[in-house]
Structures are given as structure tokens and as C-alpha cells.
């Protein structure tokens, strides 16, 4: 979580979107963002907050992809540093 944005990655969550992705939430709005490119897959999100998420995804793309592999196998993911 950073700047009020909640970021989640769910275990075994590779059926619906078929792409590595994260779920994001801010002020009741929810969306799904692809990793490692930060493209908005579904939902709506405030433009400024989406840009923050996209910057964070770009900075942490390798870590996010490693976590994605762990999560899709049902393994524990590791914490990734928040955007500062």
C-alpha cells in the first residue's frame, strides 16, 4: 500500500486474465493492471493514482514477476517496497 492505493496479488489468479497482473484499489475504485508493463486491463482508476501504480510497476517489474510466479504456484510472496 502507498499513497492510499492498495495493491494485491492473489494466489492461483491466472485463469481470468491469463497475464501476470495485480489488483489495485483506491477510494472504492478497483482495477487490474498488467505486469510488467502497467497496462490497465479492467476497471477504472483515477489517472494520477494509476500513473503512480504504473511507475511503481516499472521500478519493481522483476520483483513483481518473481512474486507472480510464486503466487500462481500457491507459494508465499515477498513484500515489495512501497513507492516513496
Automatic annotation (TrEMBL):
Q: Which InterPro entries match?
A: DUF4160
What's the protein name?
Answer: DUF4160 domain-containing protein
Superkingdom, according to UniProt?
Bacteria
Amino acid at each position: 500500500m502507498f499513497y492510499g492505493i492498495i495493491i494485491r496479488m492473489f494466489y492461483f489468479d491466472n485463469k481470468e486474465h491469463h497475464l501476470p497482473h495485480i489488483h489495485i484499489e483506491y477510494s472504492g475504485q478497483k482495477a487490474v493492471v498488467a505486469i510488467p508493463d502497467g497496462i490497465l486491463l479492467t476497471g477504472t482508476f483515477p489517472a494520477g493514482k494509476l500513473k503512480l501504480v504504473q511507475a511503481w510497476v516499472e521500478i519493481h517489474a522483476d520483483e513483481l514477476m518473481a512474486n507472480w510466479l510464486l503466487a500462481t504456484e500457491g507459494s508465499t510472496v515477498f513484500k515489495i517496497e512501497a513507492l516513496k
